[in-house]
Amino acid sequence: MATSIHETVLVGICDGAIDKKKNTSYCTNKIGDRPDLLPIISLQCPICSLCQRGLSHVVQVYCPLATSPYHRTINVFACTNPQCSGKSESWIVLRSQCLDDDIKGRQDNKTKTCRESAMSRTDWCDEADDWGMDEEEQENVAESGERVRNDSVSEETDVSSKLQGLSIDGGLDQQSALQPPHAHVFQSFYISVMEETDLDGFHDTDHENELLREYEEREGVMVGEIRSCGSGEAHEEYEKATVKHGDEVFTGFMKKISLCPEQVLRYSWAGSPLFITEQPFNVSEMVPFCGHCGSPRVFEFQLMPALVSLLCSAGTNSDTPLEFGTVLVYTCRNSCWKSGSTVPVEEFIFVQPDPDQKLFK
User: Fold this and answer.
1) For 132-142, how does the pLDDT look when each residue is reduced to its tens digit (9 = 90+)?
2) Programmed cell death protein 2 C-terminal domain location, by residue (predicted)?
């Protein structure tokens, strides 16, 4: 499905391993490790509906909506059992929310709220030293202010200014209950975020063109080069050809991510997903309405193939059998939340296998 020119797409990129000595919080965007729960949330380890094994934490995304007063975190879990690989039923996505008052009511001398001051995309990508502050620095961080309320009809998220990676005590006793001993704990990495439109010039186009040439040789298709123009915009010139594996959707997917093939996440609340294989003909009917308020669900973000190579067990060099093409996450359009709730809301997740997983190894 093509992305509308009016949609804002945020791209998540791996931004380095997380030091084990650094604590993370519910407002840290990260790969792996254990989830960091909002202060009022309680959660036992999610279980695979296919094999009944405990699920491993894959990613955590802090994504408050500009029109909402809630802190909002989404956690994605998956089963690493090879027999469950690539099946949507072996994945779970959970949405958690709470208000500033809920956090302040549970603060103590070891707990700090997330800083809400706006941060430019340049700070995200080029000045990433704020990741994992030490304790002395944390004490200088101001408490969260009230979220901006936007009366506009636009429901665009405020991710680029609100995603932060400051430390917080997540509660180790509670955390240990989230990951049973037999479940994989993936090595943890920070996720840095920038707008897709800002990718031009962010990467070395010579390097990207080399990757594209290698892809052309493998697949027997002419993709063309990424060419920088005087206006600062990059234009892609494509020539139609028959792909060896006959999957034009996959070829289009590769073209779309060619400016940043290492992206691990694409975020576009109420936007259009980027399918890696032919989308189901009844995709609109496939996504169920919210089971709590009955509202339609909208696309929010997807996990990308480059994430697969980062999902290795912490403390080992061995890969896990978790493989996928792309993982699509749909959430309640109203982001409904019952006051006083302590249990995350399960949303809808759809997994598409990769037609050529070896390209990302």
Assistant:
1) 334 443 344 33
2) 247-352
85: containing domain? 10-196+261-360
CB neighbour list of residue 354: distance below 8 Å, 6 or more residues apart: 276, 305, 308, 323, 324, 325, 326, 360
Phi and psi angles of residue 298, each rounded to the nearest 5 degrees, phi first: -120, 155
- Going 202 to 204 to 209 to 210, the CA torsion angle's sign is negative
Convert the pLDDT of each residue in 59-115 to its tens digit. 999 999 998 999 999 999 999 999 998 899 999 999 999 999 888 877 653 445 454
Q: In this structure, is residue 4 part of a structural domain? A: no
Dist. CA 146–CA 200, nearest whole Å: 34
Residues 6+ apart with CB under 8 A from 145: 116
Is 147 a domain residue? Answer: yes
Shared domain for 52 and 128, answered yes or no, is yes
At 186-206, the pLDDT tens digits run: 999 999 999 998 886 555 556
Q: Are 113 and 162 in contact (CB under 8 A)?
A: no
| Non-local CB neighbours of 254 within 8 Å, separated by 6+ positions | 215, 223
Cα–Cα dist 13/221, whole Å: 27
Total domains in the fold of the chain: 2
Above 90 in pLDDT, residue 179?
A: no
